[in-house]
Specification:
The chain has 371 residues and is α/β, with parallel strands linked by helices. Strands 2-1-3-4-5-14-13 form a seven-stranded mixed beta sheet, sandwiched between helices.
Length: 371
């Protein structure tokens, strides 16, 4: 592989003897702070376990954390800084558009990047050897969600969308998958519609399902409240394929209105002993039920620790090792491969579920469909 001229992870600018991993997470608004907190909790739990077991060849693992705040430019600058600091690899990020900016810089600098949570198919413009990903590609998960919609009898599906590469990609995946199967996707631009006007559009278009392709908490929360209070829309299903209802903040903000809104999450129906143990530890660390994002964080460090133990902290050797990874993660065995249409090394696949919050017990999740 062509290796850009950059220092290996074994070299330090500050004399540190630790093995450093750079971490990108959204920890302040407008980033999805709750997702960032869960992702970081998983990363930190796994690093603690690695260090308790002797670290990497006797050297402790250290996370060097940078807050992306959902800002692609800020993330790219953080990658530059972390590369100068001599990190062995880069990990994390939740927001797809931010991860795309980070992946481009990592590729240019020759810095291996294991992306934990972002799903955008085109994470890099061109195929790269430097980037691998744990989360399922958006096209994979959202097609499973489309199958759920069809199985539930929905053919006229409205999407309330904001402008974003991620939301546009999701709408296109749904439209391309549903159209040959008798489904219609009606796109409603939330730049031009207030939540009450959106309700009128849903009635006019005779939609049976509304999907939230918008930011959290706003305008998602306001849309849900408006639709729930409109008697004309009593039978419409609200859905959130991007996973907004996964986190406790959703239930706090919406209460009963936030239940029965199906979303995608990447967890198995039954955990292995490892997954169950990690879930308990994450629950204690977070003081609430861990989301799938917390498990993605843990699995990220599990993979990187295995690679670093086997190949050392040299960046080029880390990137060359992606196709040889075979690590037991919390949600199954993790292996990376080349997948058509995806430019990075991809775990195919993490388990995919469509779930919702139980209306009778909003803290409990119901599995509606598995992919």
């Amino acid at each position: 592989m062509n290796t850009p001229p950059s220092p290996s992870g074994a070299k330090r600018t500050d004399g540190s003897s630790s093995v450093r991993i750079g971490v990108l997470v959204p920890l302040t608004r407008p980033g999805w702070v709750e997702a960032g907190r869960h992702l970081l909790a998983g990363l930190e739990l796994a690093v603690g376990e690695v260090n308790d077991a002797g670290g990497i060849a006797g050297r402790p693992v250290e996370l060097v954390v940078r807050d992306t705040a959902a800002d692609p430019q800020r993330a790219a600058a953080a990658v530059d800084e972390l590369a100068r600091l001599g990190v062995a690899a880069l990990a994390g990020e939740y927001h797809s558009v931010v991860a795309r900016a980070a992946a481009a810089r990592a590729d240019a600098l020759g810095l291996p990047f294991l992306c934990s949570s972002a799903v955008l198919d085109a994470l890099t413009e061109q195929p790269t050897e430097w980037v691998a990903r744990l989360a399922p590609a958006q096209s994979h998960g959202w097609r499973i969600y489309a199958d759920f919609l069809l199985g539930a009898g929905h053919r006229r599906i409205a999407v309330a969308a904001e402008p974003s590469v991620y939301w546009a990609s999701g709408a296109r995946i749904l439209r391309d998958y549903l159209a040959p199967r008798g489904g219609t996707v009606i796109e409603l631009d939330m730049r031009a519609l207030a939540p009450t006007a959106l309700c009128d559009e849903l009635v006019d278009h005779r939609a049976t399902a509304l999907l939230l392709l918008v930011g959290h908490p706003e305008p998602a929360v306001s849309i849900v409240k408006s639709v729930r209070r409109d008697r004309r829309l009593a039978q419409i299903m609200i859905g959130a394929p991007a996973g907004q209802p996964e986190f406790a903040e959703w239930a706090r903000l919406l209460g009963e209105d936030g239940a029965a809104i199906p979303f995608l999450r990447y967890l198995p129906e039954l955990f292995s002993p490892l997954g169950a143990r990690v879930g308990t530890a994450l629950h204690e660390r977070l003081a609430e039920a861990p989301s799938f994002v917390a498990f993605e964080g843990y699995d990220t460090v599990a993979v990187l620790a295995d690679v670093l133990r086997t190949h050392g902290a040299d960046r080029a050797r880390t990137a060359e090792s992606w196709p040889r990874v075979a690590v037991e993660g919390t949600r199954g065995q993790i292996r990376f491969s080349r997948t058509p249409g995806i430019s990075v090394w991809q775990w195919t696949w993490a388990p995919v579920q469509v779930v919702d919050r139980d209306p009778t017990e909003p803290d409990r999740f119901r599995i509606l469909h598995s992919g």
